[in-house]
Amino acid sequence: MRLALFGGSFDPPHHGHLAIATAAADEFALDSVFFAPAGRQPLKLDGTVTSFEDRLAMVKLACLEDARFAASALDAPRSDGAPNYTVETLSGLARRMPAATLFNLVGADSFLGLPRWHEPERLLELAEWIVVSRPGFPIQDLSSLGLDVHQQSRVHLLDTVQDDTAATDLRERLEAGDPCVDLIAPGVLNYIQSHHLYR
Ligand SMILES: Nc1ncnc2c1ncn2[C@@H]1O[C@H](COP(=O)(O)OP(=O)(O)OP(=O)(O)O)[C@@H](O)[C@H]1O
Ligand SMILES: O=C(O)c1ccc[n+]([C@@H]2O[C@H](COP(=O)([O-])O)[C@@H](O)[C@H]2O)c1
């Protein structure tokens, strides 16, 4: 079983998320990609986000686009209010699925922030990483992270996707009344409209 954790705000899930998950699943023969909305992103504790329940519901709808995709509540808000550290999510997955080959899927912008994540060295041991290019974040910049040779062997770069969709832009466009039909899955758009999100 080859399984990727794909964490994010998913506020809302969009074409860029589906494009990188599809490319990663194709290239690395993944059986499953777990889309896990972050309850409390450790580096964005002050940011306002749409409720976890709405983001999980939208992710479930987005995941209908590919049989390899599944929505996951692994990063649901914790009862003690603590942030959702990916190191804990991945170690939980490794315990529960000891036979699985684990990957962590991220865009290049997220990966460039790795030194600020909780326990970066352990994160690179717990899973292989798939880092996908994103316009404005050249994959060559990853050399600036100073990973040693072993750590580099845990990181796979995928530069076949160049998708400039960003949730921040979409939220602004939705607020302005643009339905963004080409960039958001139809089921997600229906959910946004019927729940009056991003108004
Ligand atoms: N267009 C894209 N190309 C490559 N990676 C992406 C793209 N959009 C999102 N990602 C990656 O998906 C993961 C989750 O992203 P997130 O849900 O925060 O979306 P976002 O579009 O970056 O949101 P925001 O604009 O609110 O920061 C991150 O690892 C991010 O790098
Ligand atoms: O564990 C950490 O310290 C950590 C720090 C920053 C981001 N993350 C996770 O990385 C994923 C992508 O986050 P983002 O905000 O860059 O899209 C999401 O699941 C976050 O919870 C995790």
Helix and strand arrangement:
Elements: E1 2-8, H1 15-27, E2 32-37, H2 52-62, E3 69-71, H3 86-96, E4 101-107, H4 108-112, H5 120-126, E5 128-132, H6 149-153, E6 155-158, H7 167-175, H8 186-194
Parallel strand pairs: 1-2, 1-4, 2-3, 4-5, 5-6
Helix pairs in contact: 2-8, 3-5
The structure holds adenosine-5'-triphosphate and nicotinate mononucleotide (NCN).
Short description:
The protein is of the alpha/beta class. 35% of the residues lie in helices and 16% in strands.
Salient structural properties:
199 residues; alpha/beta; Rossmann fold; six-stranded parallel sheet; binds adenosine-5'-triphosphate; binds nicotinate mononucleotide
Report on this model:
- By secondary structure, the protein is of the alpha/beta class.
- It has one domain: HUPs (Rossmann fold), CATH 3.40.50.
- 35% of the residues lie in helices and 16% in strands.
- The chain has eight helices and six strands, in the order βαβαβαβααβαβαα.
- The protein has helices spanning 15-27, 52-62, 86-96, 108-112, 120-126, 149-153, 167-175, 186-194; strands spanning 2-8, 32-37, 69-71, 101-107, 128-132, 155-158.
- Strands 3-2-1-4-5-6 form a six-stranded parallel sheet.
- Strand 5 (128-132), helix 6 (149-153) and strand 6 form a beta-alpha-beta unit.
- Helix 2 (52-62) runs antiparallel to helix 8 (186-194) and helix 3 (86-96) runs parallel beside helix 5 (120-126).
- The longest helix has 13 residues, at 15-27.
- The relative contact order is 0.19.
- Bound molecules: adenosine-5'-triphosphate (ATP) and nicotinate mononucleotide.
- Residues 8-11, 16-17, 20, 106-107, 109-110, 132, 134, 163, 165-168 line the site of adenosine-5'-triphosphate.
- It comes from Tunturiibacter lichenicola.
- This is Probable nicotinate-nucleotide adenylyltransferase.
- It catalyses: nicotinate beta-D-ribonucleotide + ATP + H(+) = deamido-NAD(+) + diphosphate.
- Pfam families: CTP_transf_like.
- InterPro entries: Cyt_trans-like, NadD/NMNAT, Rossmann-like_a/b/a_fold.
